[in-house]
Amino acid sequence: MIPTSIDGTDITGATIDGTDVTEITVDGQTVFSASQPRIYHFGGNDSGGGIDDIYEYNPDTDTISTMSATVPQIVRFGLTEAVDGKIYHVGGGTDEIYEYDPPTDTISTVSATLPQNVSRGAGAAVDGNMYHFAGQSGSLIDDIYEYDPATDTASTMSATLPQGTRFGQAEAVDGKIYHFGGNDSGGAIDDIYEYNPDTDTISTMSATLPKAVIGASVGVVDDKIYHFGGFSPNNDDILEYDPATDTISTMSETIPVDIRNTTAAVVGGKIYIFGGQTSSLVDDIYEYDPATDTISTMSVTLPKDIEAGRAVAFG
User: Fold this and answer.
1) Eight-class DSSP state of 37
2) CA 237-36-305 angle, 5° bins
3) What's residue 8's pLDDT?
4) Same domain (yes/no): 146, 261
5) Do 98 and 113 touch, CB atoms closer than 8 A?
6) Are residues 217 and 291 in the same domain?
7) CA distance linking residue 221 with residue 270, whole number of Å
8) What is the C-alpha separation between 282 and 307, in angstroms, rounded?
């Protein structure tokens, strides 16, 4: 957990002579850093079923902690985004929306709810609003929902995906959201969609994934979207999609194993990939560096074997 006090004195947002405190060191060791992001991992499935745990991973020290707070219910295949100093978890088997405050390790259920109970969707945030795409609510759905944390309101957009889709992935670049793959009623698909929140319009891009795939994970570095693994069947591919040119490439590097149902988050230009399923659930954490196209297995692991969690960087 990010430290919030020293000797009982609150240091959250602290200043010295009007200057923001960004780092505190004791005997040469950093005990507080406002610029040291962490990654928070929410829920998922372990070998016993769904879980409500929240984990904090520190990329700088390659350490992981189990937080005291837990998600109010079991969640998997949800959406997490950091917006205005809080983390929001949307869907994942419920219509509820949760607000998590990392500095105080507290979580609450907001008043707004999604229009229906939904799981296995995808999403991203643009200009402080979260957008949740499709998923499953009994049957497949094609809806796009917008959640505005500032007003705590959720609404259904006019635009929809071209078909009901679940197990896709999405990321935002330059004010637009790109949705990758998933499966519709006919099976896995290779489509890439572009959603423009400003105009509430969706387009099918010319580029497609090299293979139809579900249950991948994605991360953005330098306005390019990196796509990891997925199923149909399990694969170890790392793909790079450039929205500016609508082109997709298969990187030389691969994930150490064929894997699906991972989750990813970005810190310092590197993408961290958590858990997933090979022939069984795994607890590994991988670090991918797009600048060098190299992947490493971190020394620390998740506290248990997990798939279908959701991770987000904060700080």
Assistant:
1) -
2) 45
3) 52
4) yes
5) no
6) yes
7) 7
8) 7
Same domain, 95 and 32: no
On whether the CB atoms of residues 115 and 91 are closer than 8 A, the answer is no
% of the chain surpassing 90 pLDDT: 88
**Residue type present at position 20:** D
Asked if 15 and 156 sit in the same domain, the reply is no
111-114-117 Cα angle (round to 5) = 120
Confidence tier at 36 by pLDDT (50, 70, 90): confident
Dihedral class, residue 258 (left if φ above 0, else alpha if ψ from -120 to 50, else beta)? beta
Beta strands 224-228 and 235-242: pairing type? antiparallel
- Does 119 lie in the same domain as 9? no
Task: Tell me the C-alpha distance between 268 and 261, whole Å.
Answer: 23
Q: Are residues 23 and 49 in the same domain?
A: no
Cβ(263)–Cβ(247) below 8 Å: no
Instruction: Examine the domain organization and report whether 14 and 102 are in the same domain.
Output: no
The position carrying tokens 């929809």 is 160
Within this chain, do residues 54 and 140 fall inside the same structural domain, yes or no?
yes
Closest CA to 259 of 236, 227, 287, 281: 236
Number of independent structural domains in the chain? 2
29: confidence class by pLDDT, cuts 50, 70, 90: low
Q: Find the domain containing 1 and state its range.
A: 1-36
Q: What is the pLDDT of residues 233-245, one digit of tens each?
A: 999 999 999 999 9
Against a cut of 0.85, is the pTM above it?
Answer: yes
Peptide bond into 233 cis (omega under 30): yes
